[in-house]
Write a structure and sequence with these properties.
98 residues, three-stranded mixed β-sheet, 29% strand
């Protein structure tokens, strides 16, 4: 299956645009309204809950990396802590991201 593949080295910044959350969203901000909140950790794939607190909203079809190195595909819009890295690429689809 991979007989005709040319392997090479790539830098992450050659493949992705990277950004971070812009607000330190805390548990007390979670109110069940608004967008999903991504935070660090494995529990619930890093989903803390939903909030309507004002914070940057990230597009779906992204990959998040938390401060512990946990990586998840996000197929939905979300907000996140400022310690989450978001990787985007305009060619992302769910299958490519996974």
């Amino acid at each position: 299956m991979l007989k005709n593949v040319e392997w090479g080295e790539f830098k992450l910044y050659d493949l992705f645009e990277s950004s971070n959350g812009n607000f330190d969203i805390q548990k007390e901000h979670i109110n069940g309204k608004g967008d999903y909140v991504v935070t660090a950790g494995l529990s619930e794939n890093g989903i803390l809950g939903r909030t309507d607190v004002v914070a940057k909203i990230f597009d779906k079809n992204t990959i998040t990396i938390d401060m512990f190195g946990n990586v998840f595909y996000r197929g939905y819009e979300f907000k996140c802590d400022d310690n989450i890295h978001i990787l985007t690429n305009s060619n992302f689809t769910k299958n490519i991201s996974l």
